[in-house]
Amino acid sequence: MAFDAAKEYLEKIGLGDRVKEFDVSSATVELAAQAVGCEPAHIAKTLSFLVGDEGILIVAAGDAKVDNHKYKETFHAKAKMMTPQQAVELVGHAVGGVCPFGIKPGIKVYLDESLKRFDIVYPACGSANSAVKLTIPELERASACEGWVDVCKGWE
């Protein structure tokens, strides 16, 4: 159902033809890179966090890791990832397929600076065996992001 919601959302904005479904899992960065046929860094992983009672998503490059200090400076809260159950309840997607498309209302999306070095990235599309090929401007538009943040390390 989450895949259908994400794909339908992307179709409405003219990007539905970019969605790929795989016969293999793409639930981790490494598996997604193998399924897509790209370097792991080009996978745009979507991380789900709680800031107080509110859910947020941060889309980052596959080789980036959240820097707790930068996160706290940006969001004025300790980095607290959602549980798998919270991701389904609050975002509408299960872990392994979390993406910024077709999400529940009230979830804010942020894009991490680690993505800006690429022309093309591959976020999931609501399931653990899907991806969508997007340019950075397309990702900005499709994610309806609040803006760019610098909360990751390890990719520089």
Automatic annotation (TrEMBL):
Name the record gives this protein: YbaK/EbsC family protein
InterPro entries, per the entry: YbaK/aa-tRNA-synt-asso_dom_sf, YbaK/aa-tRNA-synth-assoc-dom
Domain YbaK/aminoacyl-tRNA synthetase-associated residues, every copy: 27-141
Pfam families reported for this sequence: tRNA_edit (PF04073)
CDD domains with a match to the protein in the record: ProX_deacylase
Gene Ontology molecular function, alphabetical: aminoacyl-tRNA deacylase activity
